[in-house]
Amino acid sequence: MNKFEQLGLSESLLKAVLDLGFENPSEVQEKAIPLLLEKDTDMVALAQTGTGKTAAFGFPVIQKIDANNRNTQALILSPTRELCLQITNELKNYSKYEKGINVVAVYGGASITEQAREIKRGAQIIVATPGRMQDMINRGLVNITGINYCILDEADEMLNMGFYEDIVNILSTTPDDKNTWLFSATMPAEVARIGKQFMTDPVEVTVGAKNSGSNTVSHEFYLVNARDRYEALKRLADANPDIFSVVFCRTKRDTQAVAEKLIEDGYSAAALHGDLSQAQRDGVMKSFRGRQIQMLVATDVAARGIDVDNITHVVNYQLPDEIETYNHRSGRTGRAGRLGTSIVIVTKSELRKISSIERIIKQKFEEKVIPSGIEICEIQLLHLATKIKDTEVDHEIDNYLPAINSVLEGLSKEELIKKMVSVEFNRFINYYKKTRDISSQSGERRERSDDREPRENNNGGATRYFVNIGSRDNFDWMSLKDYLKETLDLGRDDVFKVDVKEGFSFFNTDPEHTDKVMEILNNVQLEGRRINVEISKNDGGGRRDHNGRNSGGGFGGRSSAPRREGSFAPRREGSGGFKSDRGGFSSRREGGFSSDRSRSEGGSDRAPRRSESFGDAPRPRRPRRD
Ligand code: ADP
Ligand code: MG
What we know:
It is an enzyme of class 3 (hydrolase). The chain is α/β, with parallel strands linked by helices. It has 3 domains: 3-206, 3-Layer(aba) Sandwich (Rossmann fold); 213-441 and 565-626, Rossmann fold (3-Layer(aba) Sandwich), CATH 3.40.50; 455-544, Alpha-Beta Plaits (2-Layer Sandwich), CATH 3.30.70.330. It is 39% helix and 14% strand. Strands 3-4-2-5-6-1-7 form a 7-stranded parallel sheet, with helices on both faces. It has a 7-stranded parallel sheet with strand order 10-11-9-12-13-8-14, sandwiched between helices. The radius of gyration is 26 Å and the shape is elongated.
């Protein structure tokens, strides 16, 4: 008997689970589903984003409603249009073997009469945003006076967005004897208040610590001077060639400005904020899901409900005004059990906010140093080499080989490699040659590294290594550190500054261990592959470059910057179209991305991806009055 069967799910749901490719229930599913199936009860369930809450309420609600009765029996409220569509889509998938169940989405920005018509045809389950639901109730287009179940999904976000009154009004038109299930990532006071007001003896299901962040996300901050914020962002992107991220800014203006600068500098970036038309937002989201965009620069409001798997980094370009919002931001990564990193670019005056956030998320930040130009160049170079190695050859090229060979005739393999890499690389190295070191360090950090001196060799006296294993071998920095300690038989603090990239990683040890590291690691195999370790030139600490001070490059020293391929961003002025900026350092779109994607999808054991179904969805919601 598989684990889903043990939860008490019906045959038709189990069949759907099989199609979905879910192998085991998530913790919140395991806890909530049996309780909800067993009896009629109110429930408060707290679990991080990405833990599978949709199915935790979706399976039971589908099983409990009467498919032969066409009346509306369940109402699911969700904060945004996008989530509303996602939930609807999921529920349709769950109920596909259950005859006669209709799930209808009700949200702003689309035809209200069309939605009313769909409801009239019989909708046992309505998934709605509060604003539009309230409208429909006011206009008598929907009847929820007989529902048995009301589900508040992402209750904290709904209240954050100012839906309190709508929710109260909506709930007051529902019967007293219905069951209310409240799902939330966090439990702020307003959510507790709703719970008190509208629920009787709810059973409580908690996954992980209350109000704490997901433990698949690691948190890092980089201390910089305010004027270096943008330069820091660029370097972080350059140091993570496979970055697929949401970059949060505080205002629409900053969001637009940062996105435009990134595009100008050749990155594949786009802005997402409330001043864009619906069509523009849909376009941006579609490109992001399709991975033509690597950095989505967004406001908090616009990014609510973004549910894209595989986001590698959340970047807090600026910290939010309300530190609670940090949780929502960082929850965009580390979803569905994957690892993610939440980065904060912070100035000295904001440092104390980091401690407040640490208290809220009950996790510590790691202070990191913006990589130096040299370090970035090395990372990019190795990334490029890895990419060349991984590129699948299209045999169309065979026809041109004789001609190509005659052009390249006489070059040795060595020379050829150098030249190929230089084609892409020169631009990068030229840019970073001119830049200065931009990281600022907090007092604590400075003391610590000063202890470590000598600083002259750029590495605090430690040896930095390059090793050809990385996140694609399922390592994150913690597990790689463990692996190295174990393999090398070293002590707790002997391996440090572990930095994991996709196909390779860096780490440091004290020089006394260098011989041992080279000797042992170069003779180890990992799943049949030989490990290759080399001493790295980069300093791993982002300390001052060999070139010393900035010579005017750096911030705003634009466009000498390395260019990336295709960038999209809706511009405020003009026809609202996309600006595409091709021809760059890494043609991610053609090569890297498609192979990344096939790897992650191929490797995943889940069949359908929800993203496709939403690419063409009508119009995103407005935050409030939808
Ligand atoms: P939440 O609402 O808690 O943020 P979702 O319900 O949106 O999380 O689920 C996050 C992702 O995990 C989705 O892509 C979903 O399809 C997937 N998922 C949910 N349950 C399972 C499971 N039991 N096994 C594998 N994947 C799952
Ligand atoms: Mg959810």
